[in-house]
Design goal:
It comes from Platanthera zijinensis. The chain is mostly helical. The chain has 29 helices and 2 strands. It is elongated, with a radius of gyration of 53 Å.
Length: about 600
């Protein structure tokens, strides 16, 4: 059937062509035209119809040749030879981008399209292979590999740019700098990715430390112990920086309670012990936070501040501590020098006084500034306050020799702090060590004769602590010599001087060798005249010191004489504070008992009781 149909179509096409030829000839023959202008033989040889099956481009005439030449003309060869774009072949078409077409290239580059990964759900409880990556690790590895590849491409691009730049001609060297290195990457993303990963790791550490500190501060006893153990065991893993960045701001909170501060101090102690030398870069910031605790009004705050600095010294070392606190030794701010001196005393308690003696000697004899000498001598004073007893007594002579030149220093503040330091050393070594002060007795005696005001009070304080260390003969002699100046200062208007004089009188009267008749005849008349007045009861510190000194005098001269004199003072001046009178009499009787009073004393005391 198909053969018959094809033959039929051919016959129909052939008959159609013959019909068209016949009609065209008839049409041309019926047209009338001027034979003078147009010859009848002009159109001979023309084709009167276009065959249907003939394709275009088969004419081989001049017109076809000219047309092909015109179409083939484009431009110079130098402009035509343009290399194809990346990923295109010589014909200009883009290379296939299917995975299967790139299979050979992947094999050549040893690429892994989908590496083997560990599935925790299918492995069950078995231990996974350490060399097999998990689904969580695969994106990270892919990102790092891609970054490395881009970095290699960037390096190759920079090498090609540098090579092409060296081959430029002199005319090209006049071009602007902005045209050089176009397409070059400014920086590779690998460091940025690494920084992001490090930041994320640090944030995780900080969050974990915060959770543990919250359990320490507000958790139950079991939670607190567990959190403390974790902070201690993982201290090196966390690092000194993240730990102290979270702990120290909490220690500086103004609303921090005593118990919370104590818990934080325990955390710091354990962390310092575990970190060891890793804490050295953070010594300065820890001191900045901890030193204000050393001058706090609360005794326990001061104790915990010294505790932190002592453990910090053991962890960081003596050289690191000296280097961290050295700039504040000659600071013009007295607050900074004071806290630094207290901190050095805590360091001395950690390492022992002998380890710090060479440093103290150099500082106390400094020629650079009086502030450095002042701070060095104050360190000795704070050491005496902190390490009393045999700890100071073993090194007493060395400490006195280091600071004794300060009694004749050109600066009055240095002389004052030297006298106060000697007083602290004498108090710490009592009742021993008088032989260590032989070299300073003469400068001290000269000082109480020349100075006035605060300097005189400091020198009197030193004399008052040294006299009880003497034997009976020397104590009696120096007491009589210094009492002239003390009685002169009884009438001083300064409350600070009054308290100093009262304390020195108490110390001198308590010394062996001072006779009761001397106290009764030479000291008590002026003592009751200037001190047993109503003004002394207005200040609580004056009130307390007066009561203590009067009780000590009663121990020397007897209870009957003191009670009679106090009763007489109250009888003469009814404005005398009754509480001070009764407190003094009560302490005197409780120490020495109640002897038989004469009738006048009983009458005065009975009248006083009736008035009350």
């Amino acid at each position: 059937m198909e053969v018959i149909r094809a033959n039929t179509d051919n016959e129909m096409k052939k008959s159609l062509d013959e019909r068209r030829n016949t009609e065209s000839i008839a049409l041309l023959s019926s047209v009338a035209f001027n034979s003078d202008l147009y010859e009848e033989t002009r159109f001979e040889g023309y084709v009167h119809s276009i065959p249907v099956n003939v394709e275009e481009g088969e004419d081989d005439g001049d017109a076809a040749l000219l047309s092909r030449r015109r179409m083939s003309y484009t431009g110079p060869k130098s402009l035509i030879d343009i290399p194809g774009a990346d990923g295109e072949d010589d014909s200009g078409f883009k290379k296939p981008s299917r995975i299967i077409d790139r299979k050979d290239e992947c094999r050549r580059l040893d690429c892994i399209i989908s590496p083997a990964r560990n599935d925790t759900f299918t492995s069950g409880e078995t231990t996974p292979d350490a060399f097999v990556r998990t689904y969580a690790e695969e994106p990270l590895a892919t990102t790092v590999a891609a970054s490395q590849k881009r970095r290699n491409m960037c390096d190759q691009s920079q090498d090609s740019d540098s090579t092409s730049a060296t081959k430029k001609t002199k005319s090209n060297s006049d071009a602007p700098d902005s045209t050089l290195g176009i397409g070059r990457w400014d920086a590779t993303p690998t460091p940025r990715i690494g920084a992001l990963l490090n930041d994320e790791e640090e944030e995780q550490k900080e969050r974990k430390i915060k959770r543990l500190l919250l359990k320490v501060m507000n958790g139950t006893l079991l939670q607190r112990e567990t959190a403390l153990r974790q902070l201690t065991d993982k201290a090196r893993e966390f690092g000194a920086g993240p730990l102290f960045n979270q702990i120290l701001p909490l220690l500086m909170l103004p609303t921090l309670g005593d118990q919370e501060r104590h818990l934080l101090v325990n955390v710091i102690d354990r962390v310092l012990y575990k970190l060891g030398e890793l804490v050295r870069p953070f010594v300065h910031i820890i001191l900045v936070v901890t030193e204000p605790l050393l001058i706090d009004e609360d005794y326990y705050a001061r104790f915990e501040g010294r505790r932190i600095i002592s453990h910090l010294s053991k962890a960081a070392g003596l050289a690191t501590m000296i280097a961290a606190m050295r700039p504040n030794i000659d600071n013009i701010d007295v607050y900074a020098r004071n806290t630094t001196a207290r901190a050095f005393s805590a360091v001395a308690s950690a390492f022992g006084i002998p380890a710090l003696l060479p440093f103290l000697k150099a500082v106390c004899q400094s020629k650079k500034s009086w502030q450095a000498r002042h701070t060095g001598i104050k360190i000795v004073q704070q050491i005496a306050f902190l390490m009393m007893g045999c700890a100071v007594l073993a090194h007493l002579r060395s400490l006195v020799e280091i600071i004794e030149h300060g009694l004749s220093d050109e600066n009055q503040k240095v002389r004052t702090i030297t006298a106060l330091s000697l007083a602290a050393l004498a108090e710490a070594a009592a009742p021993y060590g008088i032989e260590s002060f032989d070299s300073v007795l003469k400068p001290l005696w000269k000082g109480i004769c020349l100075h006035r005001g605060k300097a005189l009070a400091a020198f009197l304080t030193a004399i008052g602590f040294i006299i009880p260390l003497m034997d009976a003969q020397h104590a009696s002699y120096y007491t009589k010599e210094v009492m002239v100046i003390l009685i002169r200062e009884f009438q001083s208007p300064s409350d600070e001087m009054k308290r100093t004089v009262l304390k020195v009188v108490k110390q001198c009267v308590s010394a062996e060798g001072v006779e009761a008749d001397y106290v009764r005849n030479d000291i008590l008349p002026e003592f009751f005249r200037f001190f047993w007045v109503r003004r002394m009861a207005l200040d609580r510190r004056n009130y307390t010191q007066l009561v203590d000194t009067t009780v000590e005098i009663a121990n020397k001269v007897g209870v009957t004489y003191i009670v009679a004199r106090i009763a007489k003072c109250f009888y003469d001046d009814r404005e005398l504070h009754p509480g001070m009178v009764m407190e003094t009499i009560g302490k005197v009787i409780s120490n020495l008992g109640a002897p038989d009073f004469d009738a006048r004393v009983i009458d005065i005391l009975g009248g006083h009781g009736a008035d009350r």
